[in-house]
Amino acid sequence: MTKIHGMVYIVVGVLLIAGVQYFTQTRSDDSLKLFSYLGGLMILVGVGKMGINALRNRSGTPKAAPRPVYSPRAAPGGRFCPQCGAVQPPHARFCSNCGAQL
Ligand SMILES: [Zn+2]
User: Is 102 helix (H, G, I), strand (E, B) or coil?
Assistant: First the structure.
């Protein structure tokens, strides 16, 4: 099932009817009335689709919970090794985990 917004159907339907109205002014052709019915049908389909979507939204898809932003640099006090990210004492010169110079 293709996901076409219901509004698209309504717009197309209105355009179809408007087009038929325009053409029937210039020339009387009964076959054009078929397109007028088609336009009405598309509007109905569009309204129906929008109604279904509104019902689906009401039942609600659970929104993803906001993930906590983890930033090691946001931690209070201490430093972090640029190589491995291990927590270091404030005045350490070398990483206690991997030995990298801080
Ligand atoms: Zn390290």
Answer: coil
